[in-house]
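The records we work with from here on pair a chain with its fold. The integers have meaning only within a learned vocabulary of local backbone shapes. A complete example follows; check for yourself that the lines match position by position.

:::
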Amino acid sequence: MPEDSPPPTLDVCNRCRPPGWEGPLEERPGRKFAQAIDAELAKRGLSDVHRRDIYCQSQCTRACTVAFAGGARRFTFLFGDLDPGKHAGDVIDAFLMYRDREDGFLDRKERPEPLRAGILARIAPPGWKGPLVLDEKPGVQDLL
């Protein structure tokens, strides 16, 4: 990974809640999920995982959500429909695979089950060549 590239990051939406749920921010399922992930990271001694709390990931109908991101040369993933009481370990297992790969690519069959069914987005990095990019159109700057 280039020195100027940000580290692979695990983002957790803190505002996530199921439809109709009422309560203060600190009790929302998204906040509880962030706490569960932090507890699992501590239990495993993974103090080197770069994790952020995100105010909102705009996936309100698919709570709870997490994202894996890591700079211009890595895939970005967004996952939802996760259970704060069950899936913290699955998120960490998948994130560790993501972190250890140069391009961050995670094939569906190798992700833990909740992160297969709950995928909301898989975004290829700019310039990535592979079977997921069908055709690369030139940008306006390339036409001038």
